[in-house]
Specification:
It is built from 19 helices and 64 strands. By secondary structure, the protein is α+β, with helices and mostly antiparallel strands. The protein has 5 domains: 3-34 and 719-825 and 911-950, Golgi alpha-mannosidase II (Immunoglobulin-like, Sandwich), CATH 2.60.40; 38-127 and 280-335 and 404-544, TIM Barrel, CATH 3.20.20.80; 136-277 and 347-382, no CATH class; 829-904, no CATH class; 957-1066 and 1101-1114, Jelly Rolls (Sandwich). The strands form 16 sheets. An 8-stranded parallel beta barrel has the order 2-3-4-11-12-13-14-15, surrounded by 5 helices. A hairpin with a 5-residue loop joins strand 48 (916-920) and strand 49 (926-930). The longest helix has 33 residues, at 370-402. It is globular, with a radius of gyration of 32 Å.
């Protein structure tokens, strides 16, 4: 163990805490909600059921386990991911009875349930959806003829396109319906163009095929502007003026009789067919076609066949805090749709022109010119987006509200709309972020942006989703860093993916969702300790759901669809991406048009979210409707940054639309060209623009151009720190609420600068519930500076409420006449051996020790295994394993992981603490808490001075020697055994301990010298694998689930002999591995998915220590 004393350059870099009196603040709703978070602040779970595996007793046990663990709600989804079917048939009377009972039980327990909008985890549909009400495509066949001649022959009937997920997703019955359904739309003939040019990427532009942005490389976040395409010779394009409609000349059997004029002609037969998209991954009885997303009649049919039947079983429901309260529309995984029975009529009504003569553009043919064809397809996508929002997702929200329910929506990936536009109909916009798997972090920014601009208080997240590889290895400590990032990015409710419904109460770990998701189940080894983590989340979520977000910049998203909102890459840093000092959001054009107002020169949205600047995408096009809105905003005082548009992207009211855009842009931008003139005043506001490089695949220029303008407006960053600290900021009435988190696994000492004036900072610790106040901070015209000291991955709220004028801050605090020091402990991590490759195959394994040691020396303790294959893959195409043997302060440790997994090199807690802290008691007196003896002196801003002497402080004492340990024989461990020292269970010789999974209890007696008044005592557990509950002399001292692995024992420790009891829970893999060496009849575990073999590496387990007593001494300053 190595302690380093780091001298601070200035006393103001030290943070001291002022405890807030519970009594003085008892009536404070913010304090009360933080101390005792309401149910609305609790995390949720995805409550997944495997096809037909439902039981009454299992569902009740699940819900009671959720309640006891501090979970506030669950999203009900029933799916088929390969687990053997159960006996309960989806939507049968038995199923409905079980569902109704579960909803009544949830009502009884005060747990909210969100019902998935259909069978499976995406979309709406089922066997009750007939082909006419299913998703459809426009398809075409072409026949080339040369006239003059009389043509009399059947035209080839266009074939349906292959479903996005393939024909294998269709049952024989569904496949026949998919093949048989066809309805004619039109027959057109036109002179065959001379050229062979085609519309680029027409599959995507015409909404036939779009891969998920999160998981397929190369998917465009947005499509190029229609203004960006060069002209072609007219004879290379279809001339609509020469087009002939022949629909009436074709008979019902497809035969066309037509006198062909001279020349080469193309006859195109167009019709509508099914996309073939089915509910997925649906329970088998729920398999059917997805509903037509453009037709309200389709959703009506689905709502009546599924959701209404569930509602009928539960009866009238008015309890908003329990039972069925919400519908949930999960991720869009159903491909694109571009047609329906009423699409032509809807298009004409909305766009103002008939699409008929432009329909060949769906096949890639160029009509009139590339730009005109691109404009038409832009209008197709816009119409599809409007129909999707108005007739499906938005209509689902209407139906939910009519039934006293709300709606949550995940509005991203594969959908034919702009994500921000689709999501704005949700009562609860939802995103997702993965613990292991796809990169969907962009959706976090999107969901937060939707909530902030639409006045929605909750930003939910499908949290910690995982592809195969998690395998019961995730625990709360592993999830906390990514979770804190999500909080800083705008999320304020976690929906854990997933809580697996357990139909049995006697099998462990029991039912799984195959290999998917983190195992957030009641059968977890550590489930009775997880409430401590959930309480941390609830405290955070309570404060982060208060008030409104604080941000300076609003990016308006591009018009058009489909589209993923992405801020410029220069606006974030790191991975996962952290926003820089100026926070921002994105805004759908429709939201800006309908909801944005101007107050005191700022852009304001419903709910009160306020922005200092509106930033436009670097595009040449804009619709007149949006440009008129921007004109009104600037005229009223808003500052807008971005280029003037040149034309409309649409054929709506063409060509007058272009003239209107040009005229309006000249009026607003004047001579501002971004090269010589960078600003133009208009009305009470102004427009600014400076040309900067726009990176490929991005919508906006360099963010520095925007922040430089903000700085020039005398608007410093909302937050800055001279260390790796991420943040988010909310305003609740007069309270400024900042959440700040150490983004690294290293201790951090940093000055944090907040854009707050005249208010005293308070530090609220969501891990412990402690609320404190810095005695030292600085104020200036640029805001307030608060020194922060964080251990690895630690987080806190910094809250400003009380006026500074009421406080006499401390100007100086010294120890023995010198500035205070920071006591830092950094464990020495030395890699002894690190190999990556195929176990047992030396040829296909390579040494990565040197590479990883360099990473560790930089403080990077998380290792993404697959990254090691990038430079020199030792076994291409083969799954590989990383094995690392290392020491922590000389104590051996080991970690292993496979491709697609991330491993963490565990250490005893690194720490970074001041040698003393200064607090105020309930009477406002200064209370010193010292770790180091000496003479401490303070002086306040009003000239008051005082000193205290701390003569002695007991040194840290390791509780070493033997321990009595009790394992649960049910899981193979000995009921009683003595450990000579703290050992890793997986390294013990006893098979019952080596392969043990579950909870063991460590017991030990220790003596203390006479306790003295003013002492605070702590128990540091060292390394814990994986959670621990401490009891001392019969007192429950709490659960340690993350660094620092420490609990306070002041109220429990006694003079003389003390009885210590530490419950430690590890993870399931070791028992699952051990059982692979036993006959099935002797195995202690049972699960539907066990990825382990008898040779899989075991995980470190148990209390590894060292366990150490630490003492602090408190003394009050008598002020003169």
């Amino acid at each position: 163990m190595k302690n380093k004393i780091l001298r601070l350059v200035a006393l103001m870099a030290l943070v001291f805490f002022n405890s807030l009196s519970d009594g003085a603040l008892a009536a404070d709703a913010l304090v009360d909600g933080f101390a005792h978070p309401p149910d609305s602040a609790k995390p949720w779970v995805y409550w997944y059921f495997m096809d037909g595996n439902l039981t009454r007793e299992g569902m009740t046990a699940d819900l009671e386990a959720m309640k006891n663990a501090g979970i506030g709600g669950g999203i009900f989804l029933e799916v088929n991911v390969g687990i053997p079917r159960g006996p309960v048939v989806f939507m049968s009377p038995q199923w409905q009875d079980l569902m109704a009972n579960a909803l009544h039980e949830a009502d009884r327990l005060g747990i909210q349930i969100a019902l998935g909008s259909g069978p499976g985890w995406c979309g709406t549909g089922g066997p009750w959806i007939k082909p006419e009400l299913a998703m459809q495509h426009l398809v075409a066949s072409a026949t080339n003829v040369t006239g003059p001649m009389q043509f009399s022959a059947p035209l080839t009937q266009p074939r349906p396109r292959t479903p996005y997920f393939g024909e294998d997703t269709l049952t024989p019955e569904l496949k026949k319906e998919w093949q048989d359904f066809y309805r004619d739309v039109a027959v057109l003939a036109f002179p065959t163009p001379d050229g062979t040019n085609r519309i680029a990427d027409v599959e995507e532009k015409a909404l036939y095929h779009r891969d998920p942005f999160s998981s397929v490389a190369g998917v465009k976040p947005f499509l190029p502007s229609p203004a960006e395409f060069p002209a072609l010779p007219t004879n290379d394009c279809i001339n609509p003026g020469n087009m002939v409609e022949l629909t009436a000349k074709m008979s019902a059997d497809g035969r066309l009789v037509w006198e062909v004029p001279p020349g080469r002609w193309t006859i195109m037969r167009l019709g509508r067919t099914l996309t073939g998209q089915t509910t997925r991954p649906s329970p088998q009885p729920g398999l059917g076609f997805e509903t037509d997303k453009f037709d309200r009649a389709a959703l009506d049919a689905h709502f009546a066949a599924f959701i209404k039947k569930v509602l009928a079983q539960t009866g009238p429901h008015t309890n908003a805090s329990g039972g069925l309260t919400m519908l949930h529309f999960d991720s869009w995984e159903m491909g694109s749709q571009n047609w329906s029975s009423q699409f032509r009529e809807e298009f004409q009504k909305r766009r103002g022109y008939d699409p008929l003569k432009f329909l060949p553009a769906f096949t890639g043919q160029i009509v009139t010119s590339p730009e005109i064809s691109e404009r038409f397809l832009w209008d197709v996508r816009r119409t599809a987006q409007e129909l999707l929002v108005e007739n499906h997702v938005g209509y689902l929200a209407e139906l939910a509200h009519q039934n006293n329910l709300t709606l949550s929506v995940e509005p991203y990936d594969l959908n034919p709309a702009g994500d921000l536009t689709m999501g704005r109909v949700a009562d609860v916009p939802q995103c997702e972020f993965w613990y292991l798997g796809f990169n969907s972090l962009f959706s976090v920014i999107e969901a937060a942006s939707i909530a902030h601009t639409c006045g929605r208080p909750v930003v939910a997240a499908e949290a910690f989703t995982s592809l195969p590889g998690e395998d019961w290895k995730a625990d709360p400590a592993a999830l906390k860093p990514l979770g804190d990032w999500a909080f800083c990015s705008g999320v304020n409710r976690f929906d854990f993916h997933r809580f697996q419904a357990q139909p049995w109460n006697d099998r462990w770990p029991g039912m799984t969702m195959g290999p998917f998701g983190v195992h957030w189940d009641r059968t977890q080894t550590w489930w009775n300790m997880v409430p401590a983590y959930h309480e941390y989340l609830a405290r955070c979520q309570f404060l982060l759901q208060r008030g409104v977000t604080v941000a300076d910049v609003c990016f308006i998203a591009m018009e058009g669809a489909p589209q993923v909102f992405r801020p410029p890459s220069s606006a974030t840093t790191g991975s996962p991406p952290d926003h820089l000092g100026y926070n921002f959001d994105g805004c759908a054009p429709e939201t800006l048009i309908e909801r944005a107002e101007v107050q005191q020169g700022n852009l304001v949205f419903p709910g009160g979210t306020t922005y200092r600047m509106l930033v436009l995408p670097e595009q040449q096009t804009m619709t007149p409707k949006l440009l008129h809105k921007i004109e009104s905003l600037v005229r009223a005082g808003v500052t807008v940054f971005g280029p003037p548009p040149l034309k409309s992207p649409s054929l709506e009211n063409f060509p007058q639309c272009d003239a209107e855009v040009k005229k309006l842009a000249q009026k607003i931008w004047g001579d501002c060209d971004g090269e010589k003139v960078f600003a133009h005043s208009f009305g009470k506001g102004r427009v600014l623009w400076r040309k900067t490089e726009v990176k490929p695949g991005e919508q906006y220029g360099d963010y520095a151009a925007v922040t430089n303008v903000l700085a020039g407006m005398n608007l410093p960053p909302d937050f800055a720190a001279d260390g790796p600290i991420r943040f988010t900021h909310r305003r609740d009435g007069d309270a400024e609420i900042y959440f700040v988190a150490n983004a690294t696994k290293k201790p951090v000492v940093a000055d944090a600068h907040f854009q707050v004036h005249g208010l005293v900072p308070q530090i609220w610790n969501p891990l412990t519930g402690e609320m404190t106040k810095p005695a030292q901070f600085t104020t200036s015209t640029n805001g307030e500076t608060v020194p922060l000291t964080f251990g690895p991955g630690e987080s806190a709220f910094v809250i400003f409420r009380q006026p500074v004028a009421e406080i006499d801050p401390v100007l100086s605090l010294t120890r023995n006449g010198k500035p205070l020091a920071i006591i830092q402990h950094s464990p020495a991590i030395i890699l002894q051996k690190a190999t990556y490759g195929v176990p047992g195959d030396a040829i296909r394994t390579r040494d990565v020790r040197e590479k990883l040691q360099a990473q560790v020396d930089r403080g990077e303790l998380d290792i993404q295994v697959i990254d090691l294959a990038k430079d020199n893959d030792p076994a291409y195409g083969v799954a590989k394993t990383l094995r690392v043997e290392y020491t922590v302060d000389g104590k051996p440790a080991m970690a292993t992981g496979r491709d697609q997994e991330m491993i963490t090199l565990e250490t005893a807690s690194a720490s970074c603490e001041p040698e003393a802290k200064l607090e105020r008691d309930a009477d406002g007196q200064f209370l010193l808490t010292a770790k180091t003896p000496g003479r401490y002196e303070i002086q306040t801003a009003r000239g008051k001075k005082s000193a205290v002497n701390i003569a002695t402080i007991p040194l840290p004492v390791e509780i070493s020697g033997s321990w009595d340990v009790s394992f649960d024989p049910k899981w193979g461990g000995p009921a009683e055994i003595a450990f000579d020292s703290l050992d890793d269970w997986s390294q013990r010789s006893e098979t019952g301990i080596k392969y043990y999974s579950g909870t063991a209890v460590y017991r030990k007696s220790f003596s203390t010298p006479n306790l003295a008044p003013g002492q605070k005592w702590f128990l540091d557990l060292g390394i814990v694998k994986n959670l621990a509950r401490v009891r001392l002399n019969g007192h429950d001292c709490g659960v340690a689930w993350c660094p620092p692995w420490r609990v306070e024992i002041t109220g429990a420790i006694a003079n003389g002999t003390n009885e210590l009891e530490i419950e430690v829970a590890n993870l399931w893999p070791n028992r699952l591995i051990g059982d692979q060496s036993l006959p099935e009849s002797e195995r202690r575990t049972w699960t539907t998915h066990n990825p382990y073999t008898k040779d899989s590496p075991l995980l470190p387990s148990g209390l590894l220590g060292p366990v150490t007593l630490h003492t602090e001494v408190q003394s009050r300053f008598e002020m003169k």
